[in-house]
Amino acid sequence: MAQSPSTFYPARSGPYFAGLLLLAMITFWPSYVSLSPAASSVYTHFHAMVATLWVLMLIAQPMLIRSGRAQLHRSLGRVSWVLAPVFVISVVLLANNRIRGLEGPAYDFQTYILWLQFSLVTVFAFSWVMAMVKRKSMVHHARFMICTGLTLIDPVVIRLMLWVNDSPGWNYQWFTFVLTDLIILSLIWIERKQRSGRTIFPFMLGVFILAQAPALFGMTSQAWWQNFAAWFAALPLT
Predict the structure, then answer these.
(1) For residue 87, what is the enclosing H or E element?
(2) Which residues make Cβ contacts (< 8 Å) with residue 198, sequence separation at least 6?
(3) What percent of the chain is modeled with pLDDT above 90?
(4) Cα–Cα–Cα angle for 75, 59, 189, rounded to 5 degrees
(5) pLDDT at 45 over 80
(6) Domain range summary for the chain, segments of one domain joined by +
(7) pTM of model > 0.90
(8) Can you list the positions of beta strands (E) in the chain?
């Protein structure tokens, strides 16, 4: 039997994404929010604006479903056909701007950050494409849309970790990635008795782990990624 909006738990995800947005405002306070606009590049501002709009949509869409305003939900959803590609473009431009012209240890570190940027935006894009493919199936569409928001956990929480303790030798990536995976595991547990759509989160957990593994196990220092990073850094995108 189909779930109604009141019992379909992904339709209750709005407050959680609101919490993530609030946390982002706090964790980005020292390095972005509290600074003068001139202190950050136009690419940083562009990405921050688009990412904020995406989270706002993730907050609004479940609330519209719960309140029975399905037509407004669909109308707002059409915005994602523009916003999602623009989000991907904002990440690519920001990544290019951050790595161009760097040398030495700063460049080496940025090639690692480049993997984080590209892997997470790839998971984001894949989740959104699947959400659009499955847009006529609420149980599948909503779960893939939730996964787009889960890609934002790492960049938000990593800044909280560095703010609290920036001691060298700590690999905070393990914490942020494991936190993301634990959230997905909790969603798998919550919906273990659901008859429809419950394969989405186990599948996406595998996708997230594939994206995380190279960063966690030092694979970004290998020649294949370093060659790509050098090629990307040479592109005159910004």
Answers:
(1) helix 80-99
(2) 188, 191, 192
(3) 73
(4) 115
(5) yes
(6) 9-234
(7) yes
(8) none
